[in-house]
Amino acid sequence: MKWYYVVFIVFFIIISCATVYKAITPHNYDSNGVSFNYPGTWIKLDPNQLNNTNESTKSDLVAVGDPNSAHNGDIIVIVQKTEKVGTLEEIVAASKAELEKDWGAVIQSDNIIKVDGRDAHDIVYTTDSRSNKKQRMVIFDKNDMVYCIILGGSISAFDGQKDNFDMIVNSFKVTG
Predict the structure, then answer these.
(1) How far, in Å, CA of 43 to CA of 2, rounded?
(2) Contacts of 130 (CB under 8 A, 6+ apart)
(3) Residue 30 and residue 173: Cα distance in Å, rounded?
(4) C-alpha span between 174 and 61 (Å, rounded)
(5) Burial per residue of 39-63, b for 16 or more beta-carbon CB atoms within 10 angstroms, e otherwise
(6) Within 10 A of 83 (CB to CB), how many other CB atoms are there?
(7) How many Cα atoms are found within 13 Å in the side-chain-facing hemisphere of 43?
(8) Fewest 10 Å CB contacts: which of 54, 84, 109, 141?
(9) What one-character DSSP code corresponds to residue 29?
(10) Nearest CA to 116 among 91, 147, 92, 86?
């Protein structure tokens, strides 16, 4: 066998291993007072990559997602932080009412889970047929702030991302 075939094969194996390693090793976001892990193939999104006309972007800390589908709203995660005004139950009720009124959302479930040692509402909903989205909104409070993690995308893509969404929620910590 010629030496350049061996070099090519070794080079190909190294590149393949690096690509697989990157895909299975999660990234860690640690800034703006929060920390969480997200899939290695995802990226931190800038505002231009989000198809988000919502005024709530003022409270956005970070958005991450699949770079190949974020522009059309498939598979994105947005983390928001706002000052706490009222009880967590009042905030959740107001958020659900706003979703139903402004987005035609149909609430599918509202469960209590733990995030960073705190009780959190884990709300799954679908939006109207115009936007055709399924989302999961996790809301909890800590240190007089309310944190909202919105995980979602198209209805067809949402269920396939359960493990990725769980990784983000389960690793989420308030650091500041």
Answers:
(1) 40
(2) 104
(3) 9
(4) 12
(5) bebbbebeeeebebeeeeeeebbbb
(6) 8
(7) 10
(8) 109
(9) E
(10) 147
Give the three-state DSSP class for 128.
coil
Sign of CA dihedral 92, 155, 113, 43: negative
Where residue 44 sits, what CATH number does that domain have? 3.40.1000.10
Distance of CA 95 to the CA centre of its chain: 18
Q: What is the pTM of this model?
A: 0.81
List Cα–Cα distances, 141 to 11, 36, 83, 92, 110, in angstroms: 50, 16, 9, 11, 16
pLDDT digit string (tens) for 22-79? 556 899 999 999 999 999 999 998 766 555 544 445 568 899 998 877 666 678 899 9
How far, in Å, are 7, 76, 149, 152, 169 from residue 165 at the CA level? Answer: 40, 10, 10, 8, 6
Query: Could you list the residue range(s) of the whole structural domain that residue 112 is in?
Result: 28-174
Residue whose pair of structure tokens reads 């770079």 in the numeric block: 67
Are 110 and 121 in contact, with CB atoms under 8 Å apart? yes
Which tokens in the block code for residue 99?
Answer: 């979703």
Amino acid (one-letter) located at 137: M
- Based on the structure, what is the number of domains in the chain? 1
- Rounded to whole angstroms, the Cα distance separating 101 from 91 reads 15
Q: How far is CA 19 from the centre of its chain?
A: 23
Residue 141 within any structural domain of the chain:
yes
